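Supplementary notes for students who missed Thursday's class. We covered one full example, reproduced here. Read the sequence, then the structure, then the short commentary at the end.
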Amino acid sequence: MMFDVDDIRQLSDRAIFGRKRMASGKEGVAVSSHPIVTRVATAILRDGGNAVDAILAASLAQTVVEPHMTTAFGMLSMMHYDAATGATRYLNGSMNAPLAGLGGITGADLATGRGVAVPGFWAAWEAARERHATKSREELAAPAIELARTGIPIYPFLYGMMFEQAGKIGLSEEGREIYFRDNALRGPGEIVVNHRLADTLEKMATGGVDYFYRSRFTEKVVETVRAAGGVLTMEDFDRFAPRWMEPAWGSYRGHRIAGSPPPDNGGTHIIEILNLIEQIPVAEWGMPTDSADSLYWLSRFCLEVPLDGAAQGDPNSWPTPLETILSKDYAAMRFELMKMRDPVPVDPARSPYPGSNHLTVVDRDGNVATVLHSVMSLPWMNGLMVDGMSLWSGAAHFARNMPKPGDRATCYVAPHIIFGSNGKPVLAAGSPSVALIQNCVTNALNILDFGMDIETSVHRPRIGGPIYGGSTANSVAIELDCGTPAIHAAAAARGLRFELTSPWSFHAGSYEGVHISPGGVASACADPRRSGAAEAV
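Structure (token representation):
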């Protein structure tokens, strides 16, 4: 047993929004959006596991602990640095479009089986384990199975999402069995147990990829999805393959950057934006808290680069001129063109829900793993469940760019690693939410340009993303304390459309990063905008 009841209760009690503490050490550090998940990672490190062992065990546990954010039926993508060889590789485990296609998909389809995409989580999880982990599937799945079987307390964030989506959760008998009691939603502090999911995870640990993609379980999934109007087939599952890829490479003021490459093009966008930031004197102006110029241009860079990137498809069928896109010459030309026009309006209807999970682990040997996993949609959106597992509407992200049948989704998830002049990692990070690009860029600038420690950085004010269901059309979110009224007015006078939100806004991402000093001390601090924790071994 990894946990006893008191451990789970104490860790769950720490799952609150608000100020967080930094954790530092040389023997290993992990950061995630829930204290239980972080503890799973550090427990694996203490037991001799490496960064990949820890991050895989934690990611699977996260599907149990944060069922409102993720599921093993979703996607998982990872950036990995191998300290022994110096090699950095990216693993894309995002979702495929069905071979039958999803032509004409709309938001209404997300509440049906048509919104279910071909999941990549388990295939990527197993690919990462086979290549880099030292422990067995059974060992790495054990914490998630234990947590599903023993149960977790309903903490505030989980209850809030359960309350919002109660009508969807209660559509299935399984959903009512897990989250309801006598047809009433379970309340804060009650224990949520999911025995069916525990059984499914045990079978996945025993049967591996074949159980998930080629078994009676898969047939039940296909039957459930098709009965709800979907088009998935057994062939869709059988042909899914994760992709090991060369990262997108760039540089910023003497640092080398490995970013997630298309079709996971968020890391590419971070490089593009940092290239644009080199066109402005940000060190002289200061961050957006101190400068209308910085607020205006950083907002535009972080908004318009991903909007341009939405046109990029799966490189397997739509070649992407990555070398050109990431070049300094292209950034200089792009900046000149941006100066010739007003900011591009935002389409809030195309903004995905601010969900997902990110987590980062550095081990005692200096290996680094940073992972984003998600299904890119509202929790329990379609109410479909099979054997304790939610079949979420991963096709929500297809609204940004509809893949060809059988192709991979274009997602602006952004696991990335930034290297110092000595070739060693300095910063490994990523973020969930619609503001993940703004979040990652802001923290990189805070740490690299302004010398902040990571605890100071994550608590600083931030530019957000397009507001999901926001009250103001064509606006981006800016935290109230990110600048002054005078700075806001000056940026607005130049055509920047924004809506002020509370400090530490849920719409401003959640930085799950680790900063590594030249002496090898790794430091992390969970973001106050989510319920996470950082922990050192």
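Commentary. DSSP finds 19 helices and 23 strands in the chain. The first helix runs from residue 5 to 13. If anything here is unclear, bring it to office hours.
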